Amino acid sequence: MSSYYDVDGNTILNISFPEEKFSKILEKLKYPINTDFRKASFEHKRIVLLVAFREFLSGHLLLEEFCEIANHLTMLFDTNNKTPEQGDYELMIYEAADISLEARVAREPSKSSYAATLDTTWKFFNKYKYLLDEVTKEFPEVQYFENPHKYKPGEKIHFSFEETKKKIKEKGGS
User: Fold this and answer.
1) Local confidence band at 29 (pLDDT 50, 70, 90 cut-offs)
2) Domain count across the chain
């Protein structure tokens, strides 16, 4: 749960973590629901964040829920060894965690950072959304190289050593 306070320390907003919706995201990715994201790899966090943003864009997550998930996936990297991808993630994750708050701050549009905060998230999503295609890609069944129509899927194939030798000779091998 995140709480937002005014300058006097009064609570202005409490947002609970969207546990059920987050579990559905993990199920879609076939990740264990009890994954400890404090110890999760950068790649796991990045994919979950991308899916969460896609869920927000499609109306399945509220802005506040997306921000809570982003806050949950926060990760710091060693400054000396940080890759450009990790730098992108680090910038985006902190921006994404604050979008909800930025949307609520009443300022003149010229002084508001809401658009810039949302823009950072959009740029990150557009840059790395190709990873979602890789995660959800369906791979075809294994095909046999000799004659794909000769064997039925699931059928076991056994060749004796002599048969294999014979086939190699037929193809011009030794």
Assistant:
1) confident
2) 1
